[in-house]
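Board notes (copied after class):
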Amino acid sequence: MLKVGLTGGIGSGKSLVAKMFRLLGVPVLHADDIARQLMEEDETLRAALVEAFGTEVYQKGRLNRPFLASVVFGNKAQLERLNSLVHPATIAYGNRWAAAQKAPYVLKEAAIFFESGSYREMDRMIGVYAPAEMRLQRAMQRDGATEEQIRQRMAQQMDEEEKMSRCDYIIRNDGTASVIEQVLRLHEQLLELAALPHFTKTK
């Protein structure tokens, strides 16, 4: 089975693109949702988070998101510590999920494929591109956040040009071309690739 990663910076529209693929019958896994679920439900991960960040990381049995955010926000070392615990569990879950699917190819959507190293688990990578200012406005409107808050989040992500250069395919979500048409064309290409006896990684 062909495993395809879908990534892009904050506000790029990768979740919208993922929905389009889902409507085409492609199984889609949202890595951020799975990470949140595992932090709540996976006992091994819960124990590791408590050991790393203290008992306050859970409150009445539920993940104390405001506390955890306050610990890692603006603290690169603590953020890397969190990611080192959550990413392996999320990758392992994603591999089990992909193995259970019956479709020609599956799609995993995540913001930090390259930063986490999980791109190595994928056979192909799709990048969703939009200019920084467009992404900023979208994210502010979507999250009800300030410009400063979004810019800080953008600064924590890989440079967008570098991220796109490392992808096999680019979907432009900047108003210059129909996103639906781009998705349909790419879907056909991926179906053809998945049908080959031996597809190979390019990156």
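Comment from the instructor: Residues 1-27+101-195 form a domain with the Rossmann fold fold (CATH 3.40.50.300). The CA atoms of residues 65 and 160 lie 27 Å apart.
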